């Protein structure tokens, strides 16, 4: 079974910096989990929804291309739409930014239909320590490559986490692709 798929140059470092600059000037919200509950032990991060940011259409265009190609080549899921905005998250060492083990399939009308998750590493390696994205397809854990611009895709039902950032700050871009239930 194919668990995760990483792509080293989904975005160039310059493009990552442009996305970070867009997110940096947008008002950030505190991270909400699937639904509306806020639980800072589960997740500590600041979020910017890309659909509320002007000048970010090219980011969504690229996301669609990358997810489509990876799905065609690797996953073969029946995906019909991107029903939710892409999200830029910032995990800062000042409050040990992290996201504990979770799956992305939730209770909401959209979260329930998430099938494929893609996370792009927006920060250069030198910006932070900790903040590793780990995915658990079975007994072992897969560590997502950290290089700036690398995308990691995985089925949204897999458990994954971001370990606490201990120095600096890590930013990531997350998008979900949706479709009818697995069968
Ligand atoms: O920031 C990451 O690497 C993961 C984000 C995530 O798991 C989520 O938003 O559901
Ligand atoms: Fe997640």
From TrEMBL:
| Gene Ontology molecular function terms on file | dioxygenase activity; iron ion binding; L-ascorbic acid binding; oxidoreductase activity, acting on paired donors, with incorporation or reduction of molecular oxygen
Which SUPFAM superfamilies does the record match to this protein? Clavaminate synthase-like
Query: Where are the annotated coiled coils located?
Result: none
Q: Which UniProt keywords apply?
A: Dioxygenase, Iron, Metal-binding, Oxidoreductase, Vitamin C
- Pfam families hit by this protein: 2OG-FeII_Oxy_3
Which residue ranges run through the membrane?
Answer: none
Q: Which cofactor does it need?
A: L-ascorbate
- Annotated Fe2OG dioxygenase domain residues: 82-179
This chain belongs to the protein called: PKHD-type hydroxylase
Q: Organism, per UniProt?
A: Roseivivax sediminis
């Amino acid at each position: 079974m194919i668990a995760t798929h990483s792509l080293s140059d989904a975005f160039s470092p310059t493009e990552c910096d442009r996305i970070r600059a867009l997110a940096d000037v947008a008002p950030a919200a505190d991270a909400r989990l699937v639904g509306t509950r806020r639980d800072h032990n589960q997740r500590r991060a600041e979020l910017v929804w890309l659909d509320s940011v002007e000048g970010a259409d090219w980011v969504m265009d690229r996301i669609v291309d990358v997810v489509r190609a990876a799905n065609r080549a690797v996953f073969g899921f029946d995906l019909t739409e991107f029903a939710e905005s892409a999200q830029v998250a910032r995990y800062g060492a000042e409050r040990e930014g992290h996201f504990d083990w979770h799956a992305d399939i939730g209770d909401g009308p959209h979260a329930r239909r998430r099938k494929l998750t893609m996370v792009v590493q927006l920060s250069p390696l030198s910006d932070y320590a900790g903040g590793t994205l780990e995915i658990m397809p079975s007994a072992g854990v897969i560590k997502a490559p950290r290089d700036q611009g690398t995308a990691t895709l995985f089925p949204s039902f897999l458990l994954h986490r971001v370990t606490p950032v201990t120095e600096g700050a890590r930013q990531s871009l997350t998008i979900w692709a949706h479709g009818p239930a697995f069968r």
